[in-house]
Amino acid sequence: MAFLGRRIGFYLVVAWAAITMNFIIPRLMPGNPVEILISRLSSQGELTQRSIHALTVAFGLNTKTGLLGQYGQYWVQLFHGNLGTSITYYPSSVAQVVMTALPWTVILLGTATVIAYIAGTVLGVLAAWRRGSALDTALPATTFLYAMPLFWLGLVAIEVFAVKLRWFPTSGGQTQGIPIGFTGQFLSSAVDHSILPALVIVVTVMASPLVGMRNMMVTTLGQDYVLVAQAKGLSQRRVMVMYAARNAILPTIANFALALGYVVSGAILVEYVFSYPGIGYILFQSVSNEDYPLMQAIFLIITLAVLVANLLADLVYVVLDPRSRQEA
Amino acid sequence: MAIPYGAAPGAATDELARAAPEATAGLRRHWRRHYPFKVILGLGLLTVFVLMAIIGPMVAPYDPSAIGPDTLAPPSAAHLLGTTQTGQDVLSQLLIGSRSTLLVGFVAGAIATTLSVVVGISAGYYGGAGGELLGMLSNIFLVIPVLPLLVVLTAFLPGAGSMVVALVISAISWAWGARVLRAQTLSLRKQDFVQAARAAGERGWRIILFEILPNEIAIVASSFLFTVIAAILTDASLIFLGLGDTNQWSWGLILFWAQNNEAFTVGAWWWFIPPGLCIALTGTALALINFGIDELINPGLRAAGRDRKASRAMTTEQGLTPVRRAGSTGLTTGSGTGR
What we know:
The structure holds 2 protein chains of 2 kinds. By secondary structure, chain A is mainly α. Helices cover 76% and strands 0% of the residues of chain A. Chain A contains 15 helices and no strands. Chain A has helices at 2-28, 33-42, 49-59, 67-79, 94-129, 134-137, 142-147, 150-164, 184-205, 207-221, 224-231, 236-273, 279-288, 292-320, 322-326. In chain A, helix 5 (94-129) runs parallel beside helix 10 (207-221). The relative contact order of chain A is 0.15. By secondary structure, chain B is mostly helical. Chain B has helices at residues 15-19, 22-34, 37-59, 90-126, 128-143, 146-155, 162-172, 175-189, 192-199, 204-212, 217-240, 251-260, 269-297, 306-317, 322-338. In chain B, helix 4 (90-126) crosses helix 12 (251-260). The longest helix of chain B has 37 residues, at 90-126. Chains A and B meet through helix 1, helix 7, helix 8, helix 10 and helix 11 of A and helix 5, helix 6, helix 11, helix 12 and helix 13 of B.
């Protein structure tokens, strides 16, 4: 299919751009982080020759080879899954640290974002369908949700629902001491810990699909085919869902791709506020420990995750829009 | 459409307009049409915060970093917003911090918008391989998650001032505006008035500045406001993580210290609620103005008084088929409210 092929080609270019940026940034910036780190770590007296080498390789700063050679080596290391050694979680490798945290983030953020988009879309459809109703008039209030720092809403939610009301646990991803696995005990504890952070994400992320969907619906409702559907005497629900909403939803899905990078940026900080053991939490750990290899790996892995999510959104788009299938 | 405003079915819900005498209703309608309530509220809020950023540092009652004897004191006459763990005055921190926060937001917004105008319009107007490439570049920057990239960038710039951070933020947040402007320019370029200017031998830069740009002012403004909100949020997020400018008081820094001293577990709401609320309200103000701009471009989007305003806008805009348009709005709204 031409449409999907084009999109996949584009995502490959983005992935290449992100990976290359990741290579260039440490070389463009002033100062040599490796030396800072080596001196910092040697003062703790546990730096072997191998880890110095690992650090140098992780930054790709082997001075023996030229820039192009370094770039080649960087790709080879990347394909071996070798992202260097984490300083924060020494002696774990960066790949191990990221892989431990990733499932938490994917499940929490993935579920919350999907729920937020579905809820926002449905509310947007209803707001446009009942123009001037309470829901529609309350629309500008969503700007407040949109403008709120997610991590701050997280702090407020902890204060109110976890500390004052004691409905939810204040932090963490599970109760201490329960082994991770498909046991009822672990799952119920994990769900219990994720409800509050998920709610925070849903409430704030919902705002932008809501407004977008409502405005697109208003436009499609003025179209002739909606009028024809009405005139044919189709049920109101059918006109609303199959005629107006189905056409209005396409830009919403296309926008999903553009909004996702922004959404993920805000949402990973919620994990940090809740000490949720996901990517956002280790991002903070990497920042406070000047763990450059970990930071760079997080940037790469989040970018790749966003690209995969985009691809999934494109698949939904293909299912909903027959025109994207016709070209093949 | 010949139906007078008052007779339209939607007016029944608008009790205020009905109760008021004819003359004042007309005046109010005029006022509301040109300055919707949302915009007035947004501008008002924004003025408050801009004033706060200008005079805040002069009227702050205490030195924001000075350690005092009252630690974690709730709001009182001496400390209107209470104190922190080390007895610092939260109100002073808030007043002084407003300047840095807003400055980063507006500087980043201005630079990013300039970039997006240059990239978007030249990519759209000149087209060709270069235009495609610029369009591709803005799409790439749109998809890449901003915060992790900024974390990597600022982490390699230890001790960077807030203006450097603003520069870095703008360097990666111009893409949204550029994308929209490129699309708009592509469609404007084909229009008759641009073709006419070209045929008359106008120079490229003159066409861009005097024919195309004036038609895109609303998009530029909207993209500026959008970028300022994003920049303020991003700057606060970076400082909250301990990156960016942590030497200068800003709303993000107050939140950083509140989080590090676990303000929420000791119930010190006066410490972390105000800075977050200020960020949220500043963003709300900008977004409300943006709402107003959106409705100015597309009057059909307005929520209230749809029968009077929306249908009127539709018929005047698309005056060729007034009967059909009038019928369409009447049909959808009639059945919608009937259910």
